[in-house]
Amino acid sequence: MPKKCYRATRNDYNHDHGMTFTNPEPEQIRQLLNDVHSIAVVGLSPNESRPSFRVASGLQSFGYRIMPVRPMVAELLGEKAFPDLESLPELPDIVDVFRAAEHVPAIVESCIKLGIKKLWLQDGIVHEEAAQRAREAGITVVMDRCMWRDAVKFGSHPP
For site-directed labelling of 101, which of 6, 8, 14, 27 has its Cα 20 to 30 A away? Predict the structure, then answer.
């Protein structure tokens, strides 16, 4: 099991204005992880020592299909990489974000525009306004948690 997934900068606005976000209940997270098969990993690094690479590789080893989203990279983990969510040939079941908090609002807008209904922000990535915007658009949001750690914890595998 991974000891540390990813730490990025938190959005200071959220903490200064007392906004609160609550993740889905553990059973809902377990069910989400069992229901998804394809995961678009935004910010997946080609560097094997980076948390995004380790997490995506771990998820792939469980049977999840990884769809790398990383500009200027042709392939990662044996899968064709795409510069942005809009370039994906099909919609993923979920988007897993490894980008700093300031990039989250644009990612949420892409998910809304494309009709993606599940969004996961990795450990340390917190943007409560964007998470609220996503929820208002009907997107299930998990924030500040590691997808791989939860998949291990819940014994999750794709359908």
Answer: 27
Q: Cβ distance 124 to 7 under 8 Å?
A: yes
What are the Cα distances from residue 108, in Å, to 12, 19, 91, 101, 138?
Answer: 18, 18, 14, 11, 11
Domain ranges of the chain: 12-16+23-70+92-153
Superfamily for the 12-16+23-70+92-153 domain: NAD(P)-binding Rossmann-like Domain (3.40.50.720)
3-state SS assignment for residue 90: coil
Q: How far apart are the first and last CA of the chain?
A: 21
pLDDT digits (tens, 9 = 90+) for 27-42: 999 999 999 999 999 9
Count other Cβ atoms within 10 Å, centred on residue 158.
17
Q: Which of 146, 149, 140 is nearest to 35 (CA)?
A: 140
User: Which tokens is 64 given?
Assistant: 């999840």
Strand partners, 140: 118
Residue 154 near residue 29, CB atoms below 8 Å: yes
